[in-house]
């Protein structure tokens, strides 16, 4: 089936009729529908899908070990875009079609894979499927994670009729991993090229800031008598913005929960999640430490308290430079860094030679309904991925 047809099939799944954004939460209806679609598409190609105990999927073309795995993920952030994740899966299927049309027979098996809960938007742990598969996160640790509604990860997986005791995606068949992804930035736009390869992933992570104070009446409590954690949080958000700007890094408070969340009440607790990214591990540690110190200082003045908990932290990932250079030579593609996390980074950290193919994003907007890639660029990405897979699977 052509790329455009597959893309049309996916377009309605999990899409909000009001905002146009996508809500494809892992182990929920839209994502389950997408995994069923993937199984059907693989069956059309005579490929049997293996699903592990948490929902990671892979289908192999050819037998043997030392395979070349490609693919991405199908889940989305809340109100996300259409391309982040699914573009890599659809492109992988289309690339296999292209190789078969060329009459190519792989000497190394080629796999098409889907990792679950890459975004971490439901259970707060980015790249959870690949982390569990590689052992970067243990099941004993992960099963106690809860979503915003208080549902345990273990229960969500059981409700999806999966069983972690059945085992996780075996890595011993994977000799190389190649992930195609829409670029989440404007590097390729500025270079005026449709396709690029990744050199590295910036270190990044998520930290939970719990600001505690004293609930009180919004009208009767004098301003000087308040212990208001919202003030401490507000100053911390401004401090994070300033520290990131001064250092040329990234810091974002994008999620906040307030208790008791009443219009006429001073809150007792503000919980906010910091997403921070930097060009080096040391720069990330320094920036987050500076933000925390400023928050602590402000808490002392506000009569509040602060607890900071790292929830998901990934160190810098440098992709195999020889592999990147070898593949870049196939199409004279630029090799560029990315500030976004990916399953490719987890597999690379586990010792699997890994590369990433990026497809131009004309606006650079991502994690938003405005995320976009032109069809011509997507098709250029499919052709590039097919060339890469042919090179690696000869």
From TrEMBL:
Give the originating organism: Nocardioides hwasunensis
Name the domain of life. Answer: Bacteria
Question: Which Pfam families would you find in this protein's record?
Answer: Peptidase_M20
Q: Which family does it belong to?
A: Belongs to the peptidase M20 family.
Q: What is the lineage of its organism?
A: Bacteria, Bacillati, Actinomycetota, Actinomycetes, Propionibacteriales
**NCBIfam families linked:** hydantase, PRK09290.1-4
Q: What is this protein called?
A: Allantoate amidohydrolase
Q: Which UniProt keywords apply?
A: Hydrolase
Q: Keyword Hydrolase on this protein?
A: yes
